[in-house]
Amino acid sequence: MKITETEVRQVAGLANLSLTDTEIARMARELDDILTHVDKLNELDTTGVEPMAQVLYAAGETATWRDDIEGATLSNSCAVANAPVSGAGFFKVPRVIEK
Q: What is the mean predicted confidence (pLDDT) over 70-86?
């Protein structure tokens, strides 16, 4: 196993995530599966394959994203309408950084 449950706990702690023992075991398995797949990809011979700056293929005009069209913006009251706590047109969140 490439990822241990101890490592998952450490990363979860750094990310301020509270995971149950079941979730930690599942994350360790899933991350291990991902790293195993990446190892398989690393076995491929990519000699002569040019690195890509983007995933779009070289197809001229047909390889572009949609046009960037300006649309209506949300009003302040609409943007915070579903916020658990808001005030004065802002989202209110718990303090996470102490001085």
A: 91
